[in-house]
Amino acid sequence: MTTALGHEVAPQTAQRGDRFARWISRRPVAALTIAIAVIFVLWLVFAPWPEEFENVFGRKRLFINALFNGITLGGLYFLVAAGFTLIFGLMRNVNLAHGSLYLFGGYMGYEAGVWTGSWLLSYVFAFACCALVGAAMQVLIFRRMQGQDLRQTLVTLGLSIVFSDLMVWVWGGNAIQIDTPDYLMGPVPTPIIVAIKSSGDAVFLQYPRVRLVIFIAAVLIGVGMWLALHRTRIGMMIRAGVDDRDMLSVLGYRVQLLFILVFAFGAGLAGMAGIVGGTFQSISLGEDSHFLLASLVVVIVGGMGSIPGAALGALIIGLSEQFGLVYFQNYATVATFVIMVVVLALRPQGLLGRR
Amino acid sequence: MAISHTRETRIGGVDSAAPPRWIADHFAILLLGLVLVLLPAVASNFVLDQIVGWTLILGMIALSLMFLAGYGGMVSLVQMTVAGLAGYMITVFGASSLPSISLFWPWWVAAPVAIIIAVAFGTLAGALSARTEGIYTIMITLALASAFFYLTLQNWSIFNGFNGFTTIPAPIFLGINWKSPVALYYLILFFAGLSYVTVLYISRAPFGLALQGTRDNPRRMEAIGFNVTAHRIAAYAFAALIAAIGGILLVWLNNQISPGTAGIEATIDLLVIAVVGGLGHPIGAFIGALIYVILRTFALDSLVAVGLDGRRFQTIIGLGFLVIVLFSPDGMIGLWRRWSARARSQTGKSPR
Amino acid sequence: MVGARSLPDREEPALSTIAERIAVAGTGNAIELRGVSRRFGGLAALSDITLSVRPGERRAVLGSNGAGKTTLLNCVTGDFPPTSGSVRFYGEDVTNLPPHERIRRGLRRTYQISLLFQGLSVRDNVYLACLGVSRGRFSFARRHARDAIMQSVTSLIALVHLESVTDRPVGELAHGQQRQLEIALALAGAPRFILFDEPAAGLSPNERGDLIAILTALPAHIGYIIIEHDMDVALRVVESVTMMHNGRIFKEGTPREIEADPQVQQLYLGGGHG
What we know:
CATH topology of chain A: ABC transporter involved in vitamin B12 uptake, BtuC
Number of helices of chain C: 10
Helix content of chain C: 25-40%
Mean pLDDT of chain A: 82
Oligomer: heterotrimer
Strand order of the largest sheet of chain A: 1-2
CATH topology of the domain at 18-114 and 185-273 in chain C: Rossmann fold
Number of helices of chain A: 15
Largest sheet of chain C: 6 strands, mixed
Radius of gyration of chain C: 18 Å
Radius of gyration of chain A: 22 Å
């Protein structure tokens, strides 16, 4: 190719520094709208709602709960979708067995919890099990059909059919709840007022400790992934591979190692998310397709192959599901898909995706 | 996309077809057609409708997927949804056991309206996914298909939620009660045959030829004057028409429709059917459907008969699918082509 | 060798007679780029290109690898649009038109790396190219040998000497034949201006002779821009030359002037690329 690349490189760091300021000066209306929206949301969260306002929009307690549940659910979705988007971005493999890995992780974590009695250990165990399965899939199957993205995807479809049936065989159709460990039981007081009692005392929000802890863990994992992608050699290789397929051929034999690593890591994350899901809600038959779809939608909305995109998408989908549940119950799930359709129509590559 | 297409389609050939050659070329399919037409004379109503009829309908819907995937390189998982929507619409506008929802319009109004709505939906789905490339199509259409599934599950005012509809009669016209097994069979056979022939014909017409061009080399297609996106969307519209007719026939055959009809599992099953049959030729859709229907009907009992757990049916389906994808990506058609090529080369060698 | 066989009949309704073409041509340039730039992230592949080519003019764009020549063609055809600047085709602003709209207006191009339909026959490839610029793109009706399109397909195949392999899949063709087919695709319909991206790359001396013959035999109203590394080919088939370096134009002139220019000698002709 003689497309002219390789000269007049603009200094990147300087560009990044004042990008924000330039964006504001370029689109003042959008910036102002966003600023007002942020202030409004802050007001919604921290100020006690006037009575007329509650009459129209319902009780503040509902709103705050939906908000918190949405954000923490977003954390869970992020854990599942992050691996999905990495695997897709790097290998162009739409891993339709990702939901099965999530479910498998949940079951393995449950078993490990029963055996060892340790909630934290169960994460390690679930991660290891799923990573092993993911690595095996890459080594045994996908390595042989590299570049044939449709065929790989069909294989993951076949695997997901078999996996889910086998899991029904072993664990049956009943929902399994993973117990929250004692030290994470109970609520945490927060400084957010949800209502004013008739006596004039403020009622503060109490929120389940385990959800907050898991959400913080999800954020840490996300930040860690971002740092790993941007600051380590392997991360650079992965990003280069996602952005430019031709780069992969330059890596030669190491590309296989990279693929196995990414597949194992993505699968392991899904497995850990299974425990989180089992703690938040429960794990049961059908959750695999639920979380596969959630990952699909998160990744389509956020942008394929982008970790920040997965985070943003997960947050949006988590919030829309929870708010949908509270405010228009009959169409809660459909609301999520409406968001997806709108994003697809306006920005087919996803919010933070690149062409 | 990287599924191996066996491109036997000699689309370049000019049609100067003399009838005898035409008959020779299509001998097998003509014979099959004759058998299908004469089938009611020997087969029971069960075989007629629940085996062959069901096969033909599933084959039609899978054919619409095959058309998009095989000729257009777009693996659209929204085809079962299009069929399901058409089925729901014929119940809403036509007749069912729920007078609170059904409008009881005559079939000749209800059926076209249902088809138009379903085609509009299919085209819209195409417009959403046609601008993205290749493998994205699977993701987007799968998400759309599940959106429809959840909508039918949660909406009671139009789709009657979890319960769906029952008692959806096929109409009476031309003095024939199309509900009767033999009449319904012929109705299905007519539309299945029609869509098969149409797809085959279009694959060699300018439209289909250009569609195959967009599959192989979209950038070049733009550079010789084709609007690739518009062409893809038109293909979606045509495929949706076939799927919609299939959906209406499916409802008339089963006499019921519920969210499961176009659920996620049904969507996946349709892809399995099309891939197992083979995406290289329209007949693959029907072969896949036949295998699926036979397994669905008899595998459960035979699993139990050989002492296995009948509930492991899905594992059998999944493993069978995996074997096909791993060892014969062009499906049963590919198997047959390779087998017959080998047979031919052996008979060619033996005299020497 | 190639006779000056006339191009097939054209279906394009736009401008039917040569007289009309010349009338339009008189009012402006065939290709006009104003301040065209193209960036890839932080990299500027093209910087502020201003270039005009008259109808019927034949011009070579020369420059070392990475000078931005192919990027320039891509901006003209719309394969990817310029980051800034405008592109006019016969007076019409086409900067924001998708590629297929530009093709339907009479612009054509060939690709440096053959971008053909490998699984289809030669006839089908040419047929698609003819179909793309005519009505009936969505037609469900099959074609017949006596169709106007089919006739132009036959004469295009003859023009590039591929009659003997008409029904062969393109994937089986030799490299030189694929290059010939590239040219046939670009000549389909009623081209008004053609962009050739290194048409001689990888051709044998004999095939180069054929190529030169085909290019010089093109009807006079069809102008073209040719990117070529082979000076012998490039300078024999053009009347003007544009030199590019690092995404900028640094010299324009006749082939003779360019050959004689000391700066060009130093930068390009003597620079091991010639």
